[in-house]
Amino acid sequence: MDTVLLLTILVVIFALAFDFINGFHDTANAIATSVSTRALKPRPAIIMAATMNFVGALTFTGVAKTISKDIVDPFALENGALVILAALISAILWNLITWYFGIPSSSSHALIGSLAGAAISAAGFGILNYGGFVKILQALLISPFVAIAGGFLMMSLFKVLLKNRNLFKANKRIRYLQIGTAALQSFTHGTNDAQKAMGIITLALIAANLQSTDDIQMWVRIAAATSMAIGTSIGGYKIIKTVGGKIMKIRPVNGIAADLSSAAIIFGATLIHLPVSTTHVISSAIMGVGTAQRVKGVKWGVAKNIVLTWIITLPVSATIAAITYQLLNLFF
């Protein structure tokens, strides 16, 4: 078999594996608040999240096109399949490491950092599409701050609306609304996160001269959506515990505020074709909600550890990918 074709097949397999891992790694983000408040039991919540992730993944392709052309120029990338394979291996390793320790790190940061690191290792810094790369980094870095502000404002609004209500009764009724907001959260997760694997596969197909445009083929969309849905159905219980309880004690009204604000930000990013970290956005929205509720109620030690992981993910994943590319280059 031709080496380029073999590498392209490996890229497709590893991209779907990344999407699968992304599914169980990031499931917690979409359903953690509804599980922690007992609006939903874990198993029904995960099944619902898998279904809505699948629907969301099939609905949009703008983020996939951004991934396929805005980090590196696929038409200028030599050894493209090898670069992409190294990036995927690096991103998968980092996702598994952080999942094992129950840390809600960013799959988006891991993938984008890995792709940049592998490309630089193969062809130097000039290979990066700096305009697109900076645009993506800005979206990744700014979105958590927007989410903190959004969570704070949404919770502040709920505090005004529920000012003269019995909080216990209000929380009991709101708990049922969390089923809807968790479904919305899962849908928006699919519209953004599943497209990253679609973009990677399309990038590999272009680099291997198997397609000449950045259009996302239907089989790629279905394969990526299915892979993420299956991964989601397995669920990430360790991360549910961290996101849903260790940042702050979440009540139904807090969960609704966090879900609505973060879903709006993720979907907004999808509409303007920018990849954001659902992990960053949802965790940050919970911090914003907690700050509006009671600053001391947020467990800032846990939040600090999450932020530290966010900061180191890009450089660490880029370094792992650069080393992985050099090792793969010895065999291919």
Automatic annotation (TrEMBL):
It is a multi-pass membrane protein. InterPro entries: Phos_transporter. GO terms for cellular component: membrane. Pfam families: PHO4 (PF01384). Keywords: Membrane, Transmembrane, Transmembrane helix, Transport. It comes from the Bacteria. GO terms for molecular function: phosphate transmembrane transporter activity. The keyword RNA-binding does not apply. This is Low-affinity inorganic phosphate transporter 1.
